[in-house]
Fold this protein.
Amino acid sequence: MILFELGLILVLILTIIGGLTRVMRGPTAADRMLTAQLFATASVAILLLLAEVMSTPPLRDVALVFALLTAIAGIAFVQRIWDRESKIGG
Amino acid sequence: MSLLNGLSAFLMSLGTFFFVVGTLGLLRFPDIYTRLHALTKADNLGLGLLIAGLALQAETFAGILKLILIWLLVLASSATISFLVARTTLSRGIEPRRKA
């Protein structure tokens, strides 16, 4: 079971690395923000799996904090950076 | 392998499969709006199935509740972010792609 979960963690890490090409190619800044969202959701999954593999229940609290931080980061990007660019640059 | 372990392993592998498919959509879709859909729907479904598989193996009932709370928080934040990004992108004039 632990080996199986370690395999799933490896698949998720490869998924993150594959998603990084969108950061390079994405035509708009929102594409790069979406990849940050992918990072956050996949890292929540990786942390929860690690909590099972290493039998460390406090890692679930870390995953909870990550889930909250992605919301804040996304809202900060949209309200302060993406919106402000359109007002300045036109 | 007992039934509980087998069911948990099946749910977790299905969740990871949905994660991979959602990321593939992020890479291959032609438009920012479709990529938004692929990310916030498929990835969160994958996370939900993964958490369902993990909840079958949790030790205490409080652990199960914490896992479900994490899933609900990720769902709510993804829904909010997708709406905000889509609205701001539309207000900047980036049109959805239409097939001719």
Summary: The helical segments of chain A are 2-19, 21-25, 29-53, 58-89. Chain A has four helices and no strands. The longest helix of chain A spans residues 58-89.
